[in-house]
Amino acid sequence: MMSNSNVIRSLGLLWFLSLVAYAGCALPRAPRPTDPPSTVIAATEGATISVTPTVTRASPREASPEPILPTAQVTSGVGTAMPRPSVPTTAAKPQWGVQLHVPPRWDSDEIMASAQDLGVGWVKEQVQWHTIEHGPEDFEWHHLDEIVRSAETHGLKLLLGVTHAPDWTRPVEKESGPPADYGEFGRFMEQLATRYRGQVDAYELWNEPNLAREWRGDTLDASRFVALVAEGADGVRLGDPEALVVSGAPAVTGIDDGVTAVADRRFLRNMIEAGVADHVDAIGAHPYGYGNPPEESVHDETHAASSHNDHPTFFFRDTLEDYRGILVEHGLDDVPIWITEFGWPSPEGIGEMDLTGWEYGREISEADQATYVVRAFRMGQERPGVGPMFLWNLNLAVIWGPDNAFSAYSLLRPDGSLRPAYLALRAAKP
Q1: Residue 64 located in a structural domain
Q2: Which residue among 42, 311, 344, 419 has its CA within the 20 to 30 Å range from the CA of 320?
Q3: Structural domain that includes position 165
Q4: 59-96 pLDDT, tens digit each
């Protein structure tokens, strides 16, 4: 049970964690790992990705200024060409993945090339249903078509997270939420899976459904979420029997008031009791570490972070172990956990940012972020029952810059330059 002060503090964070879904989240310093990326960073110190405008064809429905894209060319800090071979050869990491974001009219091949360069085997893109189906049978597929094509071209397996029903299917037009008739979700998932049969490897059904923000217009209830998952999973099976289905991951908030949020552990137990394992191939998880190193537990005597260190929901390790324990308790040892989002924020090198509610981010340097990310990937893959892992995120800093707090999680800086976390992940071996 959390203290009142913890609940109040967590409420200050909830806006951030729930907005992460919309985009489907030290004093003293933690000890450095035995395999720091310093040699990799030194080899590319001052390197940047050159930034050039890229224009692609847009539909008449879309009308906004053309963005600027990072190209794949690497240049030195003094402007002379520095070839890619100056960076160590990338090791293949087939079960590691990264979530990327491809806005309309951005060149998906440029963004996929950055993911491919990391050596990861998977990418994730969040699909907002309402941006595709504007009315009954009024579809706009071309943008997602390009993303799916580009992932396949670059040899990357693709997980699509699907959320945010169109307003015309919902009882209220307020933020994100499911359709009034869950069968509508099944219908859409069948159409989606049919269109991309053999091209999309897995679907994550919804995102952080224990948050009111993600479930507006419906009762915040795990059994109702499972009913939605059941419809969506049936649709996927009809459209593409070979595609894998992952249940939408609960958010780790530390809040359990039943109105703003339901605690993720309780929500997961209720999901299992409602039969979610009968409908999916894997359970989704979002084990964000807040300011805590990945190996730390709430039960440790001392902590690297000065806040958000007194409840298990704030720890990568505790969330991973608790979820596995819940599955084992229910006799579901054979059901894997897919880590569909995780990461650590560092505002260093991004610019001035508003960190109200998650000031712990200032205690994480870019070097800390780099080592935490690689160590977390290895921790997850060393544990039984953990499937693919997706780091959040690749490129939101390039899209939104320092004005958006999500940029602190990115592997690229707003100017497109490579952060230490990008370099460390690229050089890491599984």
Answers
A1: no
A2: 419
A3: 4-59+69-427
A4: 323 333 323 233 333 322 222 222 333 455 688 999 99
